[in-house]
Amino acid sequence: MKAEEVFKAGLGALVVYPKWHKNGKDRVFRIRGYELGEEYVSLTDGVIQTKTHISFIKPIPLTPDEFVKLGFELERDKTWWRKGFISINPKNGFVHFDYDRRNAFEFFTVNSSNCKHVHQLQNLYHSLKGEELQYKND
Q1: pLDDT at 109
Q2: Strand 49-53 and strand 58-59: pairing?
Q3: Is the dihedral of CA 108, 114, 118, 124 positive or negative?
């Protein structure tokens, strides 16, 4: 990731540290701090805390597995992922917000085609709900 991306992602954003473990497995961490002048980032997974150069971390792409880990469920049409009043279609970037599903006129859609990574969805969710999007790590 670049320094600007880390700064935009913000504290608490989920990132992956590829091949972090000695067995070559990737590990998901939360950003807990950064030193932009030095381009280092502090990471935690709740147990382990580490610090690394930002070039070693990568954003996590939004995939079906990641939607499930974030608590979203695939809707019947197999296109939209829903959590509460937020639905997202990763193919076209549309995001629906509906506060009352019984009234089809009380919703709005945003084309958020830039929402391609977990940390971007985290930021969008936090902006709308005012709470952190929980992640179920393996």
Answers
A1: 55
A2: unpaired
A3: negative
